[in-house]
């Protein structure tokens, strides 16, 4: 998954340090990101691009970060993390539904905790847009057990029921979170959260479905699944 992140801070040293920490943390979680930087809140407000996470300094020239967040469009940013050298704004930060609050000088463990909280929420909110004729149906990724090709259609087997679309499996796979889904073979995509056991030549899913593994990709698929289990263990504190 490619994240869209913005840092709004007028201190170059803080920006450089935070950027490095974010890239290290994201790499360890298996994510990539586009990171944009603004030195004033006014410049940030001119940017119409939506972002997954905003790291906003509170004390800046011109309007402070708290005012900027109140002024930005409701759908401009999904999660906000405030940065400041003072505890005084902590209550106000959570009143505007900030995901986290970081104190300067920034510590990697604190940045990792803030980012992890955002990633956890983003994973829950991820949606796959499925084309249904002239319409588009949003489907929560976490609800998809697996996707298979049958009769030249892609069938999404979800917790709520089956959804059929003429969209190709390859296209759907490109839209899904690669940290959560694997392409088990030419005709199957599987949500790793629903795997009961990973066997030598097949997957047994929690609902009893058996999916055969691609012979040429078995080693790589096993590696992807082990990486998924490792990330899951880290987030659970195991």
Question: Which helices and strands appear, and what pairs or packs with what?
Answer:
Elements: E1 2-8, H1 12-29, E2 32-38, H2 41-45, E3 51-57, H3 65-71, E4 77-84, H4 90-95, E5 100-103, H5 108-125, E6 127-132, E7 135-140, E8 144-150, E9 153-158, E10 162-165, H6 169-175, E11 181-185, E12 188-191, E13 195-198, E14 202-205, E15 210-212, H7 218-235
Helix pairs in contact: 1-5
In words, what does this structure look like?
The mean pLDDT is 87. This protein folds into two domains: 2-124, Response regulator (Rossmann fold), CATH 3.40.50.2300; 126-235, LytTr DNA-binding domain (OB fold (Dihydrolipoamide Acetyltransferase, E2P), Beta Barrel), CATH 2.40.50.1020. It has seven helices and 15 strands. The two termini are 24 Å apart. The protein has a five-stranded parallel beta sheet with strand order 2-1-3-4-5. The chain is of the alpha/beta class and 238 residues long. Helix 1 crosses helix 5. The relative contact order is 0.10.
